[in-house]
Amino acid sequence: MSISPSSLNDVDAADSDLVRRAQAGDARAFDSLVTRYRGKVYGMCYHLVQNEQDAWDLAQEAFIKAWRALPSFKGDASFYTWIYRIAHNSTYDWLRKRKIEGAGEFDDERQAGVAAGAETVPKGEHRPDEALKNRELGTRIQQAIDQLSRTTAPPFSSGRWRGSATRRSPRSWRAPWER
User: Fold this and answer.
1) How far is 14 from 32, CA to CA, in rounded Å?
2) Distances (CA, A) of 73 to 20, 86, 88
3) pLDDT tens column, 108-142
4) Which of 141, 163, 170, 174 has the least C-beta neighbours within 10 A?
């Protein structure tokens, strides 16, 4: 495998020279730009999507978009800034599209039955299995409290805890300031 003199020059060439050559149709010049920045573009995409395959796909898509838009590149910013912005925007568009498709966030049918003054915080209902476990645990705790003798039962077993406001706990269970 031999290295051509032009590819050696591409390694040392400035981005602006490679961009001008790529705009003139030199695919090798653009390939040099891709080789120079693919790691950084991939890294930025990976940071946003946290998936190796998707990051490579998004980086490739960004370079394809850059190749197609290369004739309109004016050089006001560096090539790296330009390709970074293309990759960043493409990745955010991909994430936005994926979120909409996956979550149904903007599904009007789901929102149709919601009143204007409805609470925005979920009620925090337990999953059925958690609710069953909590109910069973509550029953077991209540059975244990019921087995305690009246003199050893803790204060929380008083009528107030069970919901009966008329029942009073023994004087010995009350705090000194309540006696």
Assistant:
1) 11
2) 10, 12, 17
3) 454 455 555 555 545 566 677 787 888 888 898 88
4) 163
Between 131 and 12, the more confident residue is 131
Of 5-19, 70-84, 136-150, least confident by mean pLDDT is: 5-19
114 exposure class (CB count in 10 Å sphere: 0-12, 13-18, 19+): exposed
Q: 90: which 2 tokens?
A: 């493409």
| pTM score above 0.90 | no
Question: Can you tell me the distance from the alpha carbon of 170 to that of 158, in angstroms, rounded to the nearest whole number?
Answer: 9
- Angstrom distances, CA of residue 40 to CA of 22, 56, 152: 20, 11, 70
Rounded Cα gap, residues 99 and 52, in angstroms: 18
